[in-house]
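Predict structure. Chain length: 34.
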Amino acid sequence: MTPCPAILALILDLRNILGGFLLTIGPRGVFTPS
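Prediction complete.
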């Protein structure tokens, strides 16, 4: 069974928002070297 298209669109939307947010912070804020 496949997820409802609305849910799929919402997930893609969240991924886009998250991606833009992470890009704004920059790789340093995401990948912190140990």
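Summary: The two ends are 41 Å apart (CA to CA).
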